[in-house]
Amino acid sequence: MGTTGVWKIERGSESDRSVLRLSGRIQGEHLAELVSFLRAESNGQPLVLDLAGVKLVDHQVVLFLADRQSAGVKLRNCPAYIREWITRL
To answer: Rounded distance, CA 50 to CA 21, Å?
Structure first.
């Protein structure tokens, strides 16, 4: 599990995929740490980012999430405002 004070990552898994549960406020300055977690979890299984606990993100994070989604990462429980921003890109 990773934590930076304003956001947190919890690892999980399902039968056929790795799940990272994100919560809190995520800003562009946190992306390097998030990328490290994604690399550590990329073991050939599909990856899910569960965003149910995410309260706030900045523009850089929206761009990052859109890019990850385009690369095949599933965004689960994505807050409506994030989904809206992604569709506007």
So the answer is: 5
**What pLDDT, on the 0 to 100 scale, is given for residue 5?**
61
Q: CA-to-CA distance for 59 and 56, rounded, in angstroms?
A: 10
What is the number of domains present in the chain?
1
Burial of residue 60 (number of CB atoms within 10 Å: 0-12, 13-18, 19+) = middle
Rounded to whole angstroms, the Cα distance separating 66 from 60 reads 10
pLDDT band at 78 (very low <50, low <70, confident <90, very high): very high
CATH of the domain at 66: 3.30.750.24
DSSP 37: H
Q: What is the rounded distance in angstroms from the CA atom of residue 20 to the CA atom of residue 23?
A: 10
